[in-house]
Fold this protein.
Amino acid sequence: MATRKKGTINIALLFMVAVSTIFIYPGCSSAQPKSDIPDLISRRFKAIYPNAQEASWETLEGGYEVSFLQNKTNVIVLFLEDGGVERTKVKTDTLSLPKTTTDYIAQKLAGMEISSVYRIIDGYGSVTWEVNTNDAGYLFATNGELMGQLPPKAKPKQ
């Protein structure tokens, strides 16, 4: 029973990350001046990240996403409309990945250049890993096992 529940949670998390990833690309969201962000969201952001620099906001369906620098590290946070945090993505490197993930990369993605690695923490504290190449993105579970491939990035509108 626990295995089935864990699998269901992993599938739900993969779906959530995949769907939200679609909305962070140009053409699927709209950049917002900071003044257009609700006061509740802005106050919550400042309370959690008082030292954030270079914040850039986007309005998404059902929430607000902010990209910023925290201690020289790229961070992306998705706030829900009620001020809750849906997920936090922290840019990191391949050295931070679980061994199972680095083994997968060595075997299945050999020769592909890793363009970015993110540690994703959802609103419940669960950690997943996003590994992007120039061609595709992959989502890995906390234990480092592959959860699935992310949908391709949307092309910007011309």
